UniProtKB/TrEMBL annotation:
Residues 1-28 are annotated as: Disordered. SUPFAM superfamilies: GntR ligand-binding domain-like, Winged helix' DNA-binding domain. Coiled coil: none annotated. The keyword Cytoplasm does not apply. InterPro entries: GntR_C, TF_FadR/GntR_C, Tscrpt_reg_HTH_GntR, WH-like_DNA-bd_sf, WH_DNA-bd_sf. PANTHER family: GNTR FAMILY REGULATORY PROTEIN (PTHR43537:SF45), TRANSCRIPTIONAL REGULATOR, GNTR FAMILY (PTHR43537). Keywords: DNA-binding, Transcription, Transcription regulation. Pfam families: FCD, GntR. This is GntR family transcriptional regulator. Residues 28-95 form the HTH gntR-type domain.
Length: 232
């Protein structure tokens, strides 16, 4: 990161979430709850790309110590959602349309061949087991719940990739999807109909895989992963 003058450095902003955080969460789940709240705020656009937010202000808002907030933000930094600004807080990462297109291209290179291999290797009943995950995504999309759909979308793709048995592939593709979600978070909001269209592609993919329509399944997978227009 380039060094700038004091005038060029952004001022940290205190952020107050639109919805109140959990009251007196259990110690072992504090970090998870803070992380979930921050994920939702990122996807919903409550945190503005380019802005720096104060860690202590977040900790005060949730009624927790600075440690779980710092740990959650460090994880988000690892996912490319935020950047650490020493002695100030965390800057919400800014992404361009080129960033999103490049992420989509890499995901296509990894996920589509994996799905093609799995299509011929797994029996239909294994794909049927993923129906609840696809249905969860459709339900979130129908509510217009961007954050809920982002989580459902991530869960579905992770479940598909985990069928390969390759933990590294599952980890890498999951990280790429998170980065795509954060990249698009500050962009224009998609309508509920557009969310549903994206969610319905999961269902269509399962239908093709269960019917053993391999060419159709590959086409759906390629279109779904390669187009840099995810609503997250």
């Amino acid at each position: 990161m380039e060094q700038g003058t004091a005038e060029q450095q952004p001022r940290a902003r205190a952020w107050v979430p639109a919805q109140p955080g959990p009251a007196a969460p259990r110690r072992h789940s504090v970090r998870a709850q803070v992380l979930a709240a921050l994920r939702r705020a990122l996807v919903d656009g409550e945190l503005t790309p380019g802005e720096v937010y104060s860690g202590p202000a977040l900790a005060e808002r949730y009624g927790v110590s600075a440690t779980p907030v710092r740990e959650a933000m460090q994880q988000l930094a690892g996912e490319g959602a935020v950047e650490v600004v020493p002695n100030r807080g965390f800057r919400i990462a800014e992404r361009s349309s080129r960033d999103l297109a490049e992420l989509a291209e890499v995901r296509t290179m990894l996920e589509v061949p994996a799905i093609v291999r799995l299509a011929r290797a797994l029996p239909p009943e294994r794909w049927e087991e993923l129906r609840p995950l696809a249905a969860s995504g459709v339900a979130a999309a129908a509510r217009g719940d961007r954050a809920g759909y982002a989580e459902a979308d991530h869960a579905f793709h992770q479940a598909v990739m985990s069928l390969t048995g390759n933990r590294r592939l599952t980890e890498v593709t999951g990280d790429l999807l998170r980065r795509a979600q954060w990249s698009a978070a500050g962009g224009a909001r998609l309508r509920t109909a557009e969310l549903l269209a994206d969610a319905s592609e999961h269902t269509a993919l399962l239908d093709a895989l269960i019917a053993q329509e391999y060419t159709v399944a590959e086409r759906i997978a390629r279109e779904h992963v390669s187009v840099a227009r995810h609503p997250h």
